[in-house]
Amino acid sequence: MAGFRSLARQVRDPRCDLALRRYSLRKCLERFAPYGHRATWDHLCSRAGFGPEDRSPDPVRLVAALEELEEARSVWLAYEVGFAERRKKEKHDGLRRPGSVDDWHRLTWGGFGVAWCDDPRVHPREPLAEVLRRLISGLERKPGSGCPVCGAARLIWKYDLDHEPSAGPVCTHCGILVPRPVLNPEALADARRGRLLVSA
After folding, report:
1. How many CA atoms lie within 13 A of 70 on its CB side?
2. How far, in whole angstroms, is CA 5 from its chain's centroid?
3. Region for 110 from its dihedrals, namely left if φ exceeds 0, alpha if ψ lies in -120 to 50, beta otherwise
């Protein structure tokens, strides 16, 4: 099974058939897809300027989409290195029980679904790397009352998400499943009440 870097080389290789280059970009999303596979693909296509169903996109646009994905992956991998170093130090210092950020992080190791968007057409519009920087900043500060990506305060609790966890607070503005550790108890309670208002 090809890894992310080898797939990225195929996307860039002008000797490869255009269909293979597009396929290789799609396969990269099996290794790293911050919004989930479908939403990340929709995001990359819209930002690079080709349609999700376009079978022969401009190779320059394919590479632009890949470059955005690679930059975001670098941001996430740097976070994971820092996370692993912190946990190692905490264990050395006797802190064996992980916190809520650690519980959340275990579900997102590798970067798949870190800013899950259950609706593939509703996702942040900013570059992926910027979205991940904002999310990481949210994880590193005290819990707040809004979405760490777009700052919106309107969160609705949704169930039956195609992700783990399968329920949680979703930002009504940018569409991400907001990690619970970035929200204070009041924001979580408000999101749950929002779910009740929506279904009433």
Report:
1. 16
2. 19
3. left
Each residue's pLDDT, cut to its tens digit, for the chain (200 residues) gives 689 999 999 999 999 999 999 999 999 999 999 999 999 999 999 999 999 999 999 999 999 999 999 999 999 999 989 888 877 887 777 766 666 667 777 777 678 899 999 999 999 999 999 999 999 999 999 999 999 999 999 999 999 999 888 999 999 999 999 999 999 999 999 999 875 333 33
Q: What residues have CB less than 8 Å from 5, skipping those under 6 apart?
A: none
- Output phi, psi for 112, to 5 deg: -80, 120
Question: How many residues are present in the chain?
Answer: 200
Which pair of structure tokens corresponds to residue 68?
């955005």
Name the percent of the chain in helix, strand, coil, to the closest 5.
50, 5, 40
The answer, as to whether pTM is greater than 0.70, is yes
Alpha carbons 93 and 196: distance in angstroms, whole number? 43
